[in-house]
Amino acid sequence: MDIRIESLQFRWAHSGFEFSLPSLHIESGASVAIVGPSGSGKTTFLKLLAGIEEAISGSIHFGPVNLTDQNGNQRRAIRQRSIGYVFQDFKLIEYLNVEENILTPWRLSECNDHTKSKMDVRVSELVDALRLTAMQRRPIHQLSQGERQRTAIARALLLKPGLVLADEPTGNLDPANKIIVRDLMLAEIARQNSTLIMVTHDRSLVEGFDRIIDFADFQSEPNQISKPS
Amino acid sequence: MNRHVLFFVWRYLIFHRGKSVVLLLSLTLTFSLPMCLGHLTRLFEQSVRERATDSPLLLGVKGNEYDLTLHALYFRANIHDTFPVKVWHDLNAEGRGHAAPLAYGFTAGSNPIVGTTLEYFEARNIRVQRGAMFVRLGQCVVGANAAEALNLEPGSSLMSDPSNVFNLAGDYPLKMEVTGILAPTGSPDDIAVFVDLKTHWIMEGLGHGHEDLSLLNEESGKILDADDEVVTAGASVMPYLEISDQNQNEFHFHSAMHELPITALLIWPSSTKAETLLLGKFNHSSNRLQLIRPLDVVESMMAWVIRVKSFMDLNYLLIALTVFGLACMILLLSNRLRREEFETFHYLGCRRTFVSRLVLCEWSTFILMAILFSIAITMLADRWMRWVLSAG
To answer: How many domains does chain B have?
Structure first.
């Protein structure tokens, strides 16, 4: 999914936090790592891309579609259809097992293109690729942190979204698991030719990404990224 | 509601099964208490009314009309004031309807022994299911529930309960022969043991049987005095405790038969005019008897029951309001606890209405299940009440 951002501005009403981004272009199929210190607007940027938050001005184009022109329900539909989201705190549903959690986007989807049998095949592919086969029916509370994050990644990739947003997906993992999860994610994203934007504050994880954008360096590259004042 | 909403609801309820069960129980209790009470009250009222409607007039000695009704219709209260059986004979001679005398004061295995005549069975449309109706002294027919409780069959014998074990000169228990088991009627007749009036009088000690004194001589020690007219026997002459074909002719009464006592007389008047005439005949201040309409008595009793029920209903309404308030609080707290879960659904692209449908479906499931359980409980209570009513 080709992403083009122009003069994007956002403000948190309650805190006065402002975020602005003059212009940014991310090619389809690219993997982008966004680094920067806490409070630099990395998560806000992902939420704007996901249509969870609404910009006060500027534009975000997903191919020909301008996300900022869409109303909340249309943005939600785009998110459901085209975006996979991996959260730092996994956000898995505690009363579902691994397989059921992975299938959640399908269950929430309003599109009937995917049959259960197709989804079962897709789940098998993902649990194989993300090494979750042995714990497919296991409840979430019996999983390690790494296994939980791999489950969350599988859930984000289930419907083969054009864009995968990952908000510090390795933040809760030990160093060995961080590398494993990053590599698995990059491999899967490459396999399904999706665009990946991953936020991290750990610079050791940016290796292997096509592009690295540092929100701390916005002042040196004012044409590309700006940081809130 | 699509199947996916139901899937999430099902998984959530199963995962939180302890919480779900507690919530379900409290809702079930809230629904089932007024449902059961309402249904049982209706059932009780219906059963009591039916019995009273089937017994248009009831004659007894003046006194508490509730006691008289409970005594004659439900074999509940003992009445010690009696009136002579000739009242029944006179009434039959008048031809203003048909009547059945009742005399009840003894029990067998805690089941009431009711002395009556065949008219009672005809009027109440009670038929013998197994065996035959009693034909002589000392025989009895048993209601369906009493037969089951006492494990009786035609041909079995049944002993009346001693009324006072310390009074050696008092009534002796009588061993009765069961000749028939009555078909179930769903009324207090099912728990009764029916005997002929004369058998009842023998139990009362008004009639008895013993060895032929004319065949005894003074050397036997049982004769205190004898002349050509009168023989006086001592206490060593024991009364028969069982009436058989061999000794039934030895049984006799020492008073005039028409003066022997009954406790109540059920009357089925032949017409409204006959009913009015009968009421006029008996209900005047100089008469020691009273003729009552059991339906009027039952309705005045039911008015009290309904009044108590209305207080209970108010109580249940308050409980229901409390439970509703608690349920709302549980819902709010539960939604607060599940905020992150709902937010995740939103982040994954579901409509906001999905969460509303999810919560609505969960509560609908609880309420529906609670109603189903309440209906099941009410049905069980219905069976229990029917058993209680037929067991008297």
So the answer is: 2
Shortest Cα distance, chain A CAs vs residue B300, angstroms: 58
- Distance from the Cα of A96 to chain B's closest Cα (Å) equals 7
β-partners of residue A207 are none
Same structural domain for residues B270 and B311? no
Look at residue B229 and tell me if it is in a domain: no
What single DSSP character describes residue A27?
-
Shared domain check, B268 and B129: yes
**Residue B351 resides in a domain:** yes
Q: What is the pTM of this model?
A: 0.68
Considering the domain architecture, whether residues B103 and B200 belong to the same structural domain is answered as yes
Strand pairing report for B193-196 and B111-116: parallel
Nearest beta carbon to residue B349 from set A80, A94, A95: A80
Q: Do B349 and A96 touch (CB under 8 A)?
A: no
Same domain membership, residue B116 and residue B136: yes
User: Measured between alpha carbons, how far is A206 from A195 in angstroms, rounded to an integer?
Assistant: 15
ipTM score above 0.95: no
- For the sheet with A3-11, list strands across it: A18-26, A3-11, A57-62, A65-66
Query: B31 and B73: one domain?
Result: no
Q: Which of A74, A76, A88, A164 to mutate to test the interface with B (most CBs of B within 10 A)?
A: A76
For chain B, which ranges sit under pLDDT 70? 1, 163-171, 210-224, 226, 228-231, 233-240, 390-392
Out of B292, B311, B339, pick the residue that ends a domain.
B292
Q: Is A108 in contact with B15 (Cβ distance < 8 A)?
A: no
- One domain, residues B152 and B86: yes
Contacts of B144 (CB under 8 A, 6+ apart): B129, B181, B182, B183, B184, B185, B190
Q: What is the pLDDT of residues A77-133, one digit of tens each?
A: 999 989 999 988 889 999 999 999 999 999 988 766 778 889 999 999 999 888 889
In a domain, B177, yes or no: yes
Nearest to A93 among B4, B344, B346 (CB): B344
| Interchain proximity B351–A96, CB inside 8 Å | no
- Burial class of residue A22 (count of CB atoms within 10 Å of its CB; 0-12, 13-18, 19+): middle
Residue of A nearest to B342 (CA): A93
- Give the domain range for residue B194: 57-206+255-292
**Do B82 and B21 share a structural domain?**
no
| Domains (range + CATH), chain A | 3-217 (3.40.50.300)
